[in-house]
Backbone:
């Protein structure tokens, strides 16, 4: 029997339908992940979907995080916006409070804050935006963890705000050699091959490296691995990644239990 020496969180972006429109197989993905990032109506989701998603997470024993976004339903939160740090702080605090109310009804403790889409990518490079998000996580009063891109502005922002930071890596996204994510506008930015994604994740978790698009090796130690829930192969990929990690002696646990 392999001795467990590494713990890792697996997270996925869920609750991303809106009204009568649905996206992804949340129930299927929740069978493999340990944490969920729940949309709060800004890029996707609505009050009913938020309630149902939190309820489903509670039934599966999956930790709940808030997936904060720019107010961009039409663009699914993937369009860059010019917002002041104060506006970003207000947007994040609003979304945290909304999801926390639904968590309270299910007896679930909100675990973390993770920015979505364009807000994630812009704040990873912009200190003032990262500081605003970290401040919102701190001021919510819930001891939330800030989950963000490894090696980005999120880590120093969390430290300055006095909140815990968790470094995130992506199973199904390609990396540039500076450690940033390849823009979705480029071919190959999203990885659809479950075998390739699985090999990359095992490398990330056990060796602390990932291969960039140019073949160079990026070094980081992730606390959490993200698998997007809006791709057609999401359920199969999540199952394959979890199985491979466990076979490598890695224990999958919610983020709070890995730090």
Residues:
């Amino acid at each position: 029997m392999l001795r467990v020496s590494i713990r890792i969180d697996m997270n996925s972006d869920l609750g991303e339908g809106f009204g009568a429109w649905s996206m992804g197989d949340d129930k299927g993905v929740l069978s493999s992940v340990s944490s969920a990032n729940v949309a709060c109506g800004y890029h996707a989701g609505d009050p009913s979907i938020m309630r149902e998603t939190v309820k489903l997470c509670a039934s599966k024993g999956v930790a709940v995080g808030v997936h904060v976004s720019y107010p961009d339903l039409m663009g699914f939160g993937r369009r860059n916006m010019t917002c002041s740090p104060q506006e970003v702080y207000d947007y994040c605090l609003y979304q945290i409070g909304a999801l926390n109310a639904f968590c309270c009804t299910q007896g679930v403790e909100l675990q973390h804050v993770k920015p979505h889409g364009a807000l994630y990518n812009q704040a990873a490079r912009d200190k003032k935006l990262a500081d605003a998000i970290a401040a919102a996580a701190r001021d919510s009063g819930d001891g939330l963890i800030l989950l963000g891109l490894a090696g980005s502005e999120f880590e120093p922002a969390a430290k300055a705000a006095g909140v815990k930071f968790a470094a995130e890596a992506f199973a199904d996204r390609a990396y540039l050699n500076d450690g940033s994510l390849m823009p979705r506008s480029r071919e190959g930015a999203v990885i659809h091959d479950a075998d390739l994604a699985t090999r990359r994740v095992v490398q990330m978790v056990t060796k602390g490296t990932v291969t960039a698009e140019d073949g160079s090796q990026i070094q980081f130690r992730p606390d959490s691995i993200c698998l997007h829930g809006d791709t057609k192969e999401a359920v199969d990929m999540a199952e394959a990644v979890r199985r491979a990690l466990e076979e490598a002696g890695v224990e999958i646990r919610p983020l709070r239990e890995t730090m």
Remarks:
- DSSP finds eight helices and ten strands in the chain.
- The helical segments are 26-30, 47-60, 85-106, 117-125, 127-139, 154-161, 194-207, 234-247.
- The longest strand covers residues 6-14.
- The domain at 6-257 is CATH 3.20.20.370 (TIM Barrel).
